[in-house]
Amino acid sequence: MNTRPHQPLTAILGGGISGLACAFELQRHGHEVLVLDRRAAPGGRIRTQRQDGFLVEQGPNSMIAPASGAEGLIERLGLGDQRIDKGEGVRHRYLVRGGRVHALPIDPLGFFTSGFFSLKGRLRLLAEPFIGRGPEDETVAAFVRRRFGPELLDYVFDPLVGGLYSGDPERLSIRALLPRLKQLELRHGSVIRGVLAKKWAGMDPRFDPRRRMPFSFRQGMAVLPQRLAEALGPRLRPGVRVEGVHPRAGGGFRLSLRERSGTTSLRADAVVVALPAYAAGRVLAPIDPALGQSLASIEHPPIAVVTQGYRRDRVSHPLDGFGVLTPKVEGRNVLGFLFSSTLFARRAPEGHVLLTAYLGGARQPGLALLPREELLALARAEAADLLGARGAPVHAGVRYWRQGLPQPGLDQGIRIEGLRNLEGAWPGLFVTGNYLGGVSTTACIDSAHAAAARADAFLNTREGSCRKPRTPTAAAG
Ligand SMILES: Cc1cc2nc3c(=O)[nH]c(=O)nc-3n(C[C@H](O)[C@H](O)[C@H](O)COP(=O)(O)OP(=O)(O)OC[C@H]3O[C@@H](n4cnc5c(N)ncnc54)[C@H](O)[C@@H]3O)c2cc1C
User: Which domain CATH number covers 131?
Assistant: First the structure.
């Protein structure tokens, strides 16, 4: 790293992937950074553990390529040789209908001709190009019901939103969750016409489900934050809870902190808030109480991740896919199972398989708070019923996320505008995180890089760079 003398200090609040990626980018551009995180280990929701010989992901399992921001970061960190693509056994997506698990082709045309949908549902789909444009924003459920009919909502979008966001399509904004679908409607008057106009196969690969490839790392997802933490070295300070961001009369900010030793404070010339929405709301409240309240009000329903390892011959299902999702109308106790040892090689010991079940979310928040033994029993019963798992698993693990993923509703647009105004009103203050441009790790990295670019521009102006030197240690404010 090449830092210049007398540099302004940028404090980055939060050492999840958002904060770490932002800090690394700013450090790469020669800026002085300090990342503060309340936990001892970096990575936030990215948690990989070795348990009973299985490689267990308790947070994200994979990232999806193409993702230029994340892939560029991985190359810069020298992690390219650690990267692994999805396993060869991944051939299907599975959905539950009528209490049974159905294989669906990954290719979209095969998906709709597969016989999974009723004739009525398919005819309704063909009417989509003739449906008029809807409002600027609406819930995912309203959008899908209006354009594609109720069967696609129940059997495609509901399980998808449950699987990706642990969310309820009746409450989430289509603009926030699936902005590209809404754009197709707004620009082309129809999603199907929009897709055809872009000649599905040859267009932007982000629109093409066949070219979207999950990838991870040999040692699991936690390799990414670990490598970022190594690159930051002493510029990552764990065990520090940020309690508030306060503007200083002469410019810059004072952070109130709580550490083991008690309360302290720190001066910073610029601040990047890379916290979950509920924590960002608290620390920004001294600057903008209404916005702080609005951020704190974003729902994060709890979710429980239950991992189960079985001997291969104890599970009758071929497990030849990503996993299985369950529509709400099927009334199951899991949002779905990921076939973790099919998705990536060497997640389970020889002769064994690893299943990851997700319970709770907006659909059944109470399930995610059940005691460990009850959760294990539910996940085991579902594995038996849906996947033919027999006997006791050789590995069973539970990770509780009491505040899971953010659920952007129809008020998200106002909130984003509020954050833009905040950055405009307080030069040197920047906000990023998984509640802004999508929850996926790759979306977080893109949002973090965008925040780093805004901070870089600020720091390169006279306003940012003429500040007095700061040492990255907590000092009486
Ligand atoms: C169960 C689960 C499965 C998922 N699966 C996938 C997947 O397969 N693929 C995918 O791409 N994404 C997935 N995600 C989403 C993705 O993991 C997250 O959206 C992303 O990691 C969020 O990163 P972040 O840095 O924005 O927030 P976080 O990871 O939450 O990091 C925020 C950090 O801020 C710190 N912090 C909080 N309050 C304070 C404070 N007051 N002071 C100091 N520090 C504080 C926390 O300790 C934490 O380290 C999943 C998430 C979950 C929970």
Answer: 1.10.3110.10
Residue 418 burial (C-beta neighbours within 10 Å; 0-12, 13-18, 19+): middle
Co-location of 414 and 435 in the same domain: yes
Tell me if 422 is assigned to some domain.
yes
Read off the pLDDT of residues 292-341 as tens digits, 9 standing for 90 and up: 999 999 999 999 999 999 999 999 999 999 999 999 999 999 999 999 99
pLDDT of 477 strictly over 80 = no
SS3 229: helix
Nearest CA to ligand 1 atom 19: 439
At residue 472, the pLDDT reads 40
Supply the pTM of this predicted model.
0.94
Tell me which of 367, 401, 435 is where a domain ends.
401
User: 95 with 104: CB under 8 angstroms?
Assistant: yes
Which atom of ligand 1 lies closest to the CA of 405?
Answer: 53
Q: What ligand 1 atom has the least distance to the C-alpha of 240?
A: 43
> Which residues surround ligand 1 with Cβ inside 6 Å?
13-19, 36-39, 44-46, 59-63, 241-242, 274-276, 279, 303, 305, 401, 404-405, 433-434, 439-441, 444
> How many angstroms separate the alpha carbon of residue 96 from the centre of ligand 1?
29
Pairing state between β 303-311 and 395-401: antiparallel
Asked if the bond preceding 66 is cis, omega within 30° of 0, the reply is: yes
Number of domains in the chain: 3
Which residue, of 173, 208, 243, is where some domain finishes?
Answer: 208
Cα(276) to ligand 1 centroid in Å equals: 7
Q: Residue 241 belongs to a domain with what CATH number? A: 3.50.50.60
Q: Where are the beta strands (DSSP E) in 61-107?
A: 63-65, 83-85, 92-97, 100-105
Q: Is 396 helix (H, G, I), strand (E, B) or coil?
A: strand
Q: Tens digit of pLDDT for each residue in 136-169?
A: 999 999 999 999 999 999 999 999 999 999 999 9
Q: Are residues 397 and 448 in the same domain?
A: no
